Amino acid sequence: MQKTTVNSWNEWDPLKHVIVGRADDCHIPPAEPALDAKVPEDSDMRGQWGRRPQDTIDEANELLDAFAAQLTKRGIRVDRPTPINHALPATTPDFHTDSQFGCMPPRDVLLTVGSEILEATMSYRCRWFEYLNYRPLLQQYWEEDPNFRHEAAPKPRLTDADYHPDYLSDKIGTEKRLQWAAEKFFVTTEEEPLFDAADVLRFGRDLVVQHGFTTNLKGIEWLRRHFPDHRVHAVNFPGDPYPIHIDATFTPLRPGLILNNPGRRLPDDQRKMFEANGWEIKDAAQPAHNTPPPLCYSSTWLSMNVLVLDPKTVCVEASEVYQMEQMDRLGLEVVPVNLRGAYAFGGGLHCCTADVYREGSCEDYFP
Ligand code: ABU
After folding, report:
1. Which ligand 1 atom sits closest to the C-alpha of 297?
2. Is residue 307 within 8 Å of residue 353, measured between CB atoms?
3. 319 burial class (0-12, 13-18, 19+ CB within 10 angstroms)?
4. What residue owns the CA closest to ligand 1's atom 2?
5. Domain parsing of the chain, residue ranges
6. Closest Cα to atom 7, ligand 1: which residue?
7. Cα separations (Å) of 204 from 12, 179, 352?
8. C-alpha to C-alpha distance for 100 and 91, rounded to whole angstroms
């Protein structure tokens, strides 16, 4: 068995070792403030909770297993987490929720920066214990790689003070949500540092972090202090009425090239660092679907939630024909992957993975 080395500084260097999530025992958790704020007002998920139907769990696992096998065939080592019992309630001195979420998607929980894997604080109560799904792997990496830094951000209390009560209605309406997003008024307050790992994109020395529902300014400041050798940039996307996780909004493909969701344009003042260094920010192609699959939290823009295998090769969901065509036009080899049947479990190809090793070192792309 090959010993582990943890090393990954960006989203595009050649991928050699990755974690792929599992759908086992995934739940639709009961209502709670940050989660409800993300569920679209016309969603079939409103008011539902409980274990996801077994046939959907089985289908998602088949797709995730097949994706893992595709990566393995290309010489990439794939590890899988060990699911905990997500039917158990989560109780702390500060909150109670009747079930947990699942062991998908790993990208939300684990942030790899160089030789470190950092467990995010998370901002949903139902995801408070989610790191436990990954502890067997992280313990193994720690035993095998003497340079591996296993870090965990301070666990948040997630009391009601963490959430703006204005977001507790299911009748806010898109217009009001967009106004709030433009004002950077999100469901999470500044009570304590909060971040999900999937709000962070890695560009070597620079970390680009989305301020939104799942990451607050204190969370971004915590990351800044935790990574003193990095420059940490807060970004926001006012066109997104449900802003969680940056990876269906802003997708770096290789040095100098990023796809941006055309409905969630990066504001002009935040584009400067990219443009000043010759980076091109292109509109992503339209999704091939008008609606997400049933019981799915995410938007149709999982079309651009791609996994870059190296600067010339990208995995794209196989039904996303427009996104595949655009990648082809951009000169990338496209690896189609069937994953739409697993979208409901928390996301697409980028979401359902977490980097362990990419070749390369920490470079400065914005000198
Ligand atoms: N986890 C990414 C979801 C983003 C979106 O719904 O567009």
Report:
1. 6
2. yes
3. middle
4. 245
5. 15-358
6. 299
7. 10, 33, 22
8. 10
Q: Cα torsion at 65, 250, 367, 111 (round to 10°)? A: -40
Verify whether ligand 1 is closer than 6 Å to residue 248 (CB atom).
Answer: yes
Domain spanning 15-358, CATH class? alpha beta
Q: Would you please indicate which residues are annotated as catalytic (active-site) residues? A: 196, 245, 351
The one-digit pLDDT tens for each residue of the chain (367 residues) are 678 999 999 999 999 999 999 999 999 999 998 888 888 888 888 888 999 999 999 999 999 999 999 999 999 999 999 999 999 999 999 999 999 999 999 999 999 999 999 999 999 999 999 999 999 999 999 999 999 999 999 999 999 999 999 998 878 999 999 999 999 999 999 999 999 999 999 999 999 999 999 999 999 999 999 999 999 999 999 999 999 999 999 999 999 999 999 999 999 999 999 999 999 999 999 999 999 999 998 999 999 999 999 999 999 999 999 999 999 999 999 999 999 999 999 999 999 999 999 999 999 999 9
Neighbours of 344 (CB within 10 A): 24
Using a 10 angstrom Cβ sphere, with 0-12 exposed, 13-18 middle and 19 or more buried, the burial of residue 85 is exposed
The verdict on the CB of residue 261 being under 6 Å from ligand 1 is no
298 lines ligand 1 (CB under 6 A): yes
4 lines ligand 1 (CB under 6 A): no
Retrieve residue 20's tokens: 């792929």
ipTM over the 0.90 cut-off = yes
